[in-house]
């Protein structure tokens, strides 16, 4: 039998999905996280962006991409010519996974396991069905692999347009904004990130 609330209700009503996800025990991450961080944005969004999982600040705020990675993402979307009003933002995994530093104070991000990504995937499917965007943008390997399969490599296929007929959507994967923040040459990494977003938009 399934854990409580592990499967989304059969609905495209985002408020109902969000309410149901708040009780999800589909994997163990709910135990230590503050709350479920569901996607946000207009239901008529033409573009859906998928990150990895909420970070420390997102876990506290209950909203995706409100921390440092989110600020970089906002700036990059502006620069790439996107209208933020048309974008729905979510994550492949909807609870923050972390470990404590040695002093037990800071919460350090841990990459979610394949099992956790798969456990959370029905929620991503439900959001995708509800939003039905024209364009799906994956930020980083965890997000891309969630829907494109474990063999997908960002390094090989970033910026390529990939048709996903089962969801009637075009997908493009690029790096995660946190990877841009950590890059040795941050400026170059940022420009390449913006270029991928421009290509995703179908621009030049
Ligand atoms: N990183 C992510 O992948 N998602 C967030 O919501 C924040 C940081």
UniProtKB/TrEMBL annotation:
SUPFAM superfamilies: Uracil-DNA glycosylase-like
InterPro entries: UDG_Type-4/5 (IPR051536), Ura-DNA_glyco_family4 (IPR005273), Uracil-DNA_glycosylase-like (IPR005122), Uracil-DNA_glycosylase-like_sf (IPR036895)
GO molecular-function terms, A-Z: 4 iron, 4 sulfur cluster binding; deaminated base DNA N-glycosylase activity; metal ion binding
UniProt keyword terms in alphabetical order: 4Fe-4S, DNA damage, DNA repair, Hydrolase, Iron, Iron-sulfur, Metal-binding
Residues covered by the Uracil-DNA glycosylase-like domain: 38-198
Pfam family, one: UDG
Record keyword DNA repair present: yes
Keyword 4Fe-4S: yes
NCBIfam families attached to this UniProt entry: UDG_fam4, UDG_fam_dom
Record-stated family: Belongs to the uracil-DNA glycosylase (UDG) superfamily. Type 4 (UDGa) family.
Name of the protein in question: Type-4 uracil-DNA glycosylase
Record organism: Amycolatopsis orientalis (Nocardia orientalis)
Lineage of producing organism: Bacteria, Bacillati, Actinomycetota, Actinomycetes, Pseudonocardiales
């Amino acid at each position: 039998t399934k854990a409580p609330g592990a499967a989304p209700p059969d609905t495209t009503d985002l408020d109902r999905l969000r309410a149901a996800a708040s009780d999800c025990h589909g994997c163990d991450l709910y135990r230590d996280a503050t709350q479920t961080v569901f996607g946000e944005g207009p239901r008529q969004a033409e573009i859906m962006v998928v990150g990895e999982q909420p970070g420390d600040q997102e876990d506290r705020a209950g909203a995706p991409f409100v921390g440092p990675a989110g600020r970089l993402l906002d700036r990059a979307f502006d620069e790439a010519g996107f209208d933020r009003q048309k974008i729905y933002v979510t994550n492949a995994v909807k609870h923050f996974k972390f470990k404590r530093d040695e002093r037990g104070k800071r919460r350090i991000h841990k990459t979610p396991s394949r099992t956790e990504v798969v456990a959370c995937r029905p929620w991503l499917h439900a959001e995708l069905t509800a939003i039905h965007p024209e364009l799906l943008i994956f930020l980083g390997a965890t997000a891309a692999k969630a829907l494109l399969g474990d063999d997908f490599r960002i390094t090989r296929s970033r910026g390529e347009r990939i048709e996903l007929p089962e969801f009637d959507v075009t997908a493009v994967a690029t790096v995660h904004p946190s990877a841009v923040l950590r890059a040795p040459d941050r400026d170059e990494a940022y420009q390449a990130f913006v270029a991928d977003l421009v290509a995703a938009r179908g621009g030049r």
